[in-house]
Amino acid sequence: MYLIRRVFKCKPRTTRKAAELITKIGEAYMDAGQRSQIRVYFSGGTVPGPADTLYMDWTSEAIESPGREGNVTPREIIMPLWTEALEYVEEDHIEFYEMFEPRGHTGR
After folding, report:
1. Which residues 6+ apart lie within 8 Å of 57 measured at CB?
2. Cα three-residue angle 86-92-96, rounded to 5 degrees
3. Are 39 and 1 in contact (CB under 8 A)?
4. In the Cβ-directed half-sphere of 20, how many Cα atoms lie within 13 Å?
5. What is the 3-state secondary structure (H, E, C) of 11-65?
6. Which 8-state DSSP code applies to residue 97?
7. What was the pLDDT predicted at 79?
8. Cα angle at 56 between 81 and 18, to 5 degrees?
9. Which residues make Cβ contacts (< 8 Å) with residue 51, sequence separation at least 6?
10. Which candidate, 77, 92, 89, places its Cα nearest to that of 18?
11. What are the tens digits of pLDDT across the range 58-107?
12. Of 30, 3, 6, nearest in space to 18 by CA
């Protein structure tokens, strides 16, 4: 199992607006069956952490290219949202983490 996290460095005082759009993008991927439950969160406002930084993460059984053959994304929904979100985002990147699960662990 992997944790996949997109990190967005937002222009000052635009993080909440960007969060609204990034959430809609994540929900569109979820509705299309492309992602598990997403979480959107940020730091640097009223909590410690890098200023104006927004995160969206989800888990996946495998790391797969979104451009893989046969993968259909809801581009008609996502592209206008990305265009608008990029007005608030200075830079972004993606991070991948392998989830640790001890041997014999059956959950909580």
Report:
1. 3, 4, 5, 6, 38, 39
2. 140
3. no
4. 6
5. CCCCHHHHHHHHHHHHHHHHHCCCCCCCEEEEECCCCCCCCCEEEEEEEECCCCC
6. E
7. 93
8. 40
9. 12, 43, 44, 45
10. 89
11. 999 999 887 788 888 888 889 999 999 999 999 999 999 999 988 876 66
12. 6
The letter for the amino acid at 77 is I
Phi and psi dihedrals of 75, rounded to 5?
Answer: -55, -35
Residue 32 burial (C-beta neighbours within 10 Å; 0-12, 13-18, 19+): middle
* Residue range 14-70, pLDDT digits in tens: 999 999 999 999 999 999 888 999 999 998 778 888 999 999 999 999 998 877 888
Residue in 21, 24, 83, 92 with CA at minimum distance from that of residue 53? 92
